[in-house]
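Everyone, describe these structure tokens:
***
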Amino acid sequence: QVQLVESGGGSVQAGGSLRLACVHPYNRVCLGWFRQAPGKEREGVAAIAGDGSTSYADSLKGRFTISKDNAKNTLYLQMNSLKPEESAMYYCAAGAWYGRTCLLLSDRYNYWGQGTQVTVSS
């Protein structure tokens, strides 16, 4: 049973913005966003820890912002200045938090949503 449910994907032109959301049942965990394009490996985008500390893929800093609303059990990813090469399925995931910055390694996350498609046209 999938317990993380993503929404907010869609089609946008290059330079546009999208805000993804992920409803989840977890507290005090690492929550992350990952993406996977056809024929490519899954890559980490951003993560947020139980204490709110964040980590980002180096190429995304300044354009993407991860946040969460604990009262709503919802994780967000604000994506600005999107590029065509960022078209992919975007997944949210949850994993154990050990009191440190969450790593953007998919094998550290045990629970995954089914994904939401983001398509960026040129």
